[in-house]
Amino acid sequence: MKERNKPSKFIGILGGGQLGRFFTIAAQNMGYSVVVFDPDKQSPAGKLADKHICKTYDNLEALDELKEICNEVTIEFENVPAETLRYLEKDIIIRPESKAVSIAQDRIKEKSFLEESGVPLARWALIDSVESIEIFNDEVDIFPAILKTAQFGYDGKGQIHVDNAIELENAFVRFNKVPCVLEAKLDLDLEFSIVMARSIKGDYLEYPLIENQHEAGILDLSIIPARVPSIIKKEATKFTKRIATDLNYIGVMAVEFFISNNHLYVNEIAPRPHNSGHFSIDACVYNQFDQQVLTLSGSKPKDQETKFPVSVMLNILGDLWFRRGDRKSEPNFEMIKSPEISLHLYEKSEPRIGRKMGHITIVGSEKESIEDVIRKAESIRKIIWEN
Ligand code: ADP
Ligand code: MG
Predict the structure, then answer these.
(1) Residue 256 in contact with ligand 1 by CB distance below 6 A
(2) Structure pTM?
């Protein structure tokens, strides 16, 4: 709880979206004041923050102001320019460090790093010129594949599926020939993620594995615990620990995995809490944002213990506002009110197709199976879409 009479210490976050908003809530609950740095006046986290610096990430004066206010800063998304982090890092604590973030924000650096760490990846190639495409002919076949821009992709944006060298070249041109990676498209049995936290002293904890279902490249549903064989779970934990250690990582990180034909692959890493970890807000004693605050302030992460053995998280996209066609209509969430259901809306200024507006967590009791809770989630989805 916040202490009333004493001015509380400020901690900071770069980025003011929903992840920044949950961080702000967690930090304020632990007695901190929060400064959010985000150029958007309407940012969901800025609305709750004790202070909002509403400037661009390259504004040195504004960054100096941030340094004046607080000594510890974290990020809510990986696309904060690494330059900004390096500038701040000269004087104050940034967790995760710019080195880890600069790797995670560039798929070329990320894949090279992961390869060096010896974790399994889908076959990939660097595409940075028309010449780099020419090797893909009848002898070197990677198709069907996905061309992904090295930077600034999220929610499936900056990705084009390609079936041959001609489509690849067209896709590369559509991306204005920015550096890309080409990835063999895997036949997915299942996707899952691991959300972990690691302290400056190397204390490590991870949440239960999270099974993820995507729709058009955007996370739709997460199921906890993931229905993954224990041998694969062990492997995934081993790789996650290795990645965190090799990055000398401090903070919360998510690792996304694919299972394809019973083989495990690392997809990508996120140097921050993750959409799939939102279940922890309602299903765990300490959620992923609590761990972000704790590790930022130099403390040990706390117990990842779950209060509910099974839970399902359903993302709410802006599409729901347009369920009746072009005309926008507010969804009605009244009908789904129930103790085991938690609705989180992010207070975004405008709903848009594909924009994450909120999420719903459904927790299951000891008596309920995962399938029971998934069925409940699907019926909730139906109700909100039909109302
Ligand atoms: P983003 O940064 O948008 O999350 P990802 O690389 O994680 O980008 O891709 C988004 C989704 O697209 C993945 O979660 C998965 O469903 C699908 N996808 C991405 N790469 C592959 C691949 N190599 N094979 C099959 N599906 C893929
Ligand atoms: Mg992803």
Answers:
(1) yes
(2) 0.96
